Amino acid sequence: MRTNQQGDFVRGGYPSHSKLNTIVTAVIFIIVGLLFLGRNFGIIDSYLFHILVSWQMLLIVVGVVNLIKRHFFGGVITIAIGAYFLLPEISGIEGEWAGMFWPVLLILVGIMILFKPKRHRFNSHWDKRRPEYAKEIYSSEDGFVVSDNTFGSVQQIVLDPVFKGAQIKNAFGGTVLDLRRSKLEAPRTFIDIDCTFGGVEIYLPSDWNLQTQIDAFIGGCDDKRYNSSVEIDKEHILVVRGKVSFGGIEFKS
């Protein structure tokens, strides 16, 4: 084992996690800068640029870094979530892709659990103290939805006749909320979202009046509903507020 005074190297002379994080961050900034130059000078197509510089691609990069750090489970999940939201943008496949993706992912996760290498004894004490990082908690009571998702996938259909609001937290995961079977009664109904390194999809009726108040940092919030023949409801407003960092929020019908 070789270690310098700053602790930048560990066994075998490989970089430590902190050193690796610094290198990866620097490389990402350099690559993104080169991509911006390529787009500005017409070398890189605008469509390709928006795919390469997107929160979905960032999730995939984070997953690859986790694999390098030997965080295999978290790395695979993060890459899978990034691919899940990126591939439909490239291929245009929606329902068919979603129906096939999650079963295949579950099979892969099961195989990883079966063939997970045993840890050495000197790590057993640390393993007992290490908290679980995966969490999927979601519920709907009297039309109000609460969802807390970390390193997981949540797909929830609201069957209450009246939707009264939601509180959604999403980190390194994918959350899908379907509101098309409910309606609004209050003049203003609120959805509070806190999304970090992940994606949130909300399905709404085409005639709902949607207002977004989202603070986005290297992320996006897109309303992809479009139907020119539908008259928007002026009496009821759905207000979606919160923040998204290194992720995206999409509204679909």
Helices and strands, with pairings:
Layout: H1 17-40, H2 46-52, H3 55-68, H4 72-91, H5 95-114, H6 124-129, E1 135-141, E2 144-150, E3 153-157, E4 165-171, E5 174-178, E6 188-196, E7 199-203, E8 209-217, E9 220-223, E10 237-245, E11 248-252
Parallel strand pairs: 2-4, 3-5, 4-6, 5-7, 6-10, 7-11, 8-10, 9-11
Antiparallel strand pairs: 1-2
Protein name: Cell wall-active antibiotics response LiaF-like C-terminal domain-containing protein
Transmembrane segments: 20-41, 47-65, 72-91, 97-115
Keywords: Membrane, Transmembrane, Transmembrane helix
How many E strands?
Answer: 11
Structure annotation, total helices: 6
User: What is the rounded Rg?
Assistant: 21 Å
* Structural class assignment: alpha/beta
Strand content: 25-35%
Low-confidence stretches: 1-14, 119-132
> Which percent bin holds the helix content?
25-40%
Principal-axes geometry comes out as globular
Mean pLDDT rating = 76
Keywords: Membrane, Transmembrane, Transmembrane helix
Domain Cell wall-active antibiotics response LiaF-like C-terminal: 163-222
Domain LiaF transmembrane: 25-120
Pfam families: LiaF-like_C (PF09922), LiaF-TM (PF22570)
Task: Tell me what you see in this structure.
It holds the Pfam family LiaF-TM. Residues 25-120 form the LiaF transmembrane domain. This protein is α/β, with parallel strands linked by helices. 36% of the residues lie in helices and 28% in strands. It folds into 2 domains: 11-128, no CATH class; 135-252, no CATH class. It has helices at 17-40, 46-52, 55-68, 72-91, 95-114, 124-129, and strands at residues 135-141, 144-150, 153-157, 165-171, 174-178, 188-196, 199-203, 209-217, 220-223, 237-245, 248-252. The strands form 2 sheets. It has a 6-stranded mixed beta sheet, with no helix packed on it. The longest helix has 24 residues, at 17-40. The chain starts with 16 loop residues before the first helix and ends with a strand. Mean pLDDT is 76; it is low at 1-14 and 119-132.
